[in-house]
Amino acid sequence: MYECHSPYIVSFYGAYKHDKDVIMCMEFMEPGSLDYIAKVMGSLDVQYLRVIADSVLKGLVYLYDTHKIMHRDIKPSNILMNSRGQIKLCDFGVSGELVNSIADTFVGTSTYMSPERIQGGKYTVKSDVWSFGLTLMELALGRFPFGGDADGSGDKRASSGPMGILDLLQSIVNEPAPKLDKDKYPAELSDFCDKCLAKDPEERLSPKELLDHPLIQLDLPVDVEQWAEDIINTAAAKKAAQNGQPPPPPRIRDHSQPTIPTVGSQRKQKA
Hints:
By secondary structure, the protein is of the alpha+beta class.
């Protein structure tokens, strides 16, 4: 992690041991994970999904091209946003370096695993693409794509869906990949998810190829700092309401630079 330096990867500052625990010091990311953001804000619109897709793909390309690393655990809780609206990848606990372009260890979060991984086959970097396609579709729907009701009602996220884990894994392997309703979602978003969720990994696009996809090329300006600010304020208001308290004053974006005292500046001046 010391060697990863990218605007699309959460920065790692160091670690130390405290009693029996190892404490890792990392970049502060508020409002936090996309999993948390989706719970606060609900399903996300295409302009925000485009920003997320662009950042995650660039993060994956950086890992692959610079460090020969696959993430291997892409999911909403491992993609974070900071207060500037930057989207970054985190949690490389199961990441591994590529050996001869393939890997055969069975790690990662099962519900976001690609069909070839679930079946125990060897896989390539395109397995991360499947996981991200499932993640992006979940953020668009507001529920986990597999095992949801036809009307999409209720909380059907991966952690609380009605299917048992074995039924879910069988569905991922044996059933057609989920698709977005083309009458409700932009064609660019639907096609992007389709390209990510190709059951045959040979037909799945790579992260670098997906950066040229029409979804990424859409001209949809977004004030990402305002977006992050809105999420933080909405989360604070909802938390206050749950506790029976009035909403706190909204956080206002501050672009001013803090004054950092120099050594000796606090000393008493001589008369």
